[in-house]
Amino acid sequence: MGTIAWETDIKVALAKAQTIQKPVMVDFFNPG
Amino acid sequence: MDAVTYPHTSVQDILAESMVPVRIPFDDPLSQEYSITWIPALISLDWNGGQHYRTVGFMAPDEMVPSLMLGCAKVYGDLGHFDTAFAAIEKIISNYPESDAAPEALFAEGVYRYKSTQDPAPLKKAYEDLEKQYPHNLWTKRAYPYRLL
Fold first, then answer.
1. Per-residue pLDDT at A32
2. Which of A2, A18, B106, B148 has an alpha carbon within 20 to 30 A of A9's alpha carbon?
3. For residue B112, which of B95, B137, B87 has the smallest C-alpha distance?
4. How many domains does one find in chain B?
5. Residue B88: which CATH number?
6. Structure pTM?
7. Does residue B3 sit within a domain?
8. Three-state DSSP class for B108?
9. How far is residue B5 from each of residues B8, B38, B45, B60, B85, measured CA to CA in Å?
10. How far apart are CA B82 and CA A2, in angstroms?
11. Is B115 part of any domain?
């Protein structure tokens, strides 16, 4: 089974998205 | 979501291929910035941080995949990258016609085809397709005025 390569910083995610020109999916979640 | 949806290969695959996934705890200040009042909340952003689509609540894998595709389609379509948006929409309509995302995808296709051509015919077609395939759906009701075009 694979895993999801979650980013944990929105700025890092947006910078990565800017580079590859792909959308960002933000999951607001309860860490428990 | 962690127990059922995210372990599913189809969800992992679309996130790896099509999006940059990021997880933010609901008590992070960013939640307030994005007006998050209930979780799980999923938001599709463009690479400049603009919001284009959001969902609230649990989704099983067979709903999550087309919902993510729709999020991508709306990002690309809203930014005027119509061909990429249409490709995502066609996958939703062809592969997930029974999903909750499919009617909204049909609606969005009509809108983006109109925006890309200034021809109102795709809006009318969107209503006709919605009325035929999803007669009682919310998006059929929202497309109702387009029958007159």
1. 83
2. A2
3. B87
4. 1
5. 1.25.40.10
6. 0.96
7. no
8. helix
9. 6, 18, 21, 6, 24
10. 31
11. yes
Q: Which residue has the tokens 């979780």?
A: B39
DSSP helix/strand/coil, B9: helix
| pLDDT the model gives residue A2 | 61
B91 touches chain A (CB under 8 A): no
Residues on chain A bordering chain B, Cβ-to-Cβ distance under 8 angstroms: 1-10, 12-14, 16-18, 20-31
Please work out, in degrees rounded to the nearest 5, the angle formed at the alpha carbon of residue B59 by the alpha carbons of A4 and A12: 35
Residues of A in contact with B19 (CB under 8 A): 22-25
What is the spatial distance between Cα B143 and Cα B129, in angstroms, rounded to a whole number?
10
Domain range for B15 is 9-148
Q: Residue B41 is nearest to which of A21, A28, A31, comparing CB atoms?
A: A28
Instruction: Write the Ramachandran bin of B35: left for phi over 0, alpha for psi from -120 to 50, otherwise beta.
Output: left
* Model confidence pLDDT, tens digit, residues B18-34: 999 999 999 999 999 99
Q: Please tell me the predicted confidence (pLDDT) of residue A1.
A: 43
Q: Is residue B118 in a domain?
A: yes
Q: In this complex, do B71 and A17 lie within 8 Å of one another by their Cβ atoms?
A: no
Residue B133 to residue B131: CA distance in whole angstroms:
6
Contact B68, B15 (CB under 8 A): yes
When CB atoms are compared, the residue of B16, B41, B71 closest to A23 is: B71
Residues of chain B with pLDDT under 70: none
